[in-house]
Amino acid sequence: MLQVIDKTGWHKAFQLTKAISYIGSDPANDVVLESWRGAGVAHRHLQVISLPGGGYRLVNLSSTPIVLAGREPRTVPPHSFADVLANERFELGEFTLLLGGSDDEHTQSSQSVSSARSGPSAPGAARVASQGPSSVPALTASEQVSSSRIGVRLALSDVRLSPDRPIGGTVTVQNRGEGTGVQFRLQIEGLDPGCFDIGPGPILFPNAERDVPLTIRHPRGPQPPAGRQEIRIRVTAPEQYPGEQTVVSQGVEILPFWHHELRLIDEG
Predict the structure, then answer these.
(1) Three-state SS sequence of the chain
(2) For the structural domain made of 127-254, what CATH number should be given?
(3) pLDDT at position 260, please?
């Protein structure tokens, strides 16, 4: 369940029945936050993924950070994600949202938010596998592991690839080692080269990170066939960190594409 509270204290509960739900101001979203109720929400602002072991993955599809107000407050940067448990509270523009919990808890939350705002002033699905020189750990969809020196995050705008709308996203690469001026290389597996565009691998100093833009286009052909396709992004730094790699994998649903041709035969 998702509880939505606006700046006046109005609140409404939504049942999240899908494995992946979208939140934003556009009417096509699963949870719509109307602009007349509150500002600061993008057309498609947030992707909520229900994790198999419980909890949720929040993917920030917007260009502004999302504030998580749990026991340890933190932010979700643009085009990145964070895993949260039930009863996590966060803010989208002028709205406050609460994931999970009972109706009583939701009511108490809305009352506390309303009183706080009336007082003095108060702001796709990615699985990661890392490999050192000799081993690859087995992972489930909810696990997130990074190699000791190569950090990678993947955020996609959607996981359904239609013929008329490409998927946008970012691959965030981080230098977690001590090498200076490390050249990272990115390789995509599971798609033909004509189906994607990805920016060049960054050169990073220690503890620095950079977003690499990614665009995925529909193949508009027989291969790969319609259905679920696993896309893997492999990041290496062979010169400075030989033998190490981090692989980010994300399942994408390729929607069907029909191509019809009409031929007229002159029988005269």
Answers:
(1) CEEEECCCCCEEEECCCCCEEEEECCCCCCEECCCCCCCCCCCCCEEEEECCCCCEEEEECCCCCEEECCCCCEEECCCCEEEECCCCEEEECCEEEEECCCHHHHHHHHHHHHHHHHCCCCCCCCEEEEECCCCCCCCCCCCECCCCCEEEEEEECCCEEECCECEEEEEEEEECCCCCCEECEEEEECCCHHHEEECCCCEECCCCEEEEEEEECCCCCCCCCCEEEEEEEEEECCCCCCCCEEEEEEEEEECCCCCCCCCCCCCC
(2) 2.60.40.10
(3) 62
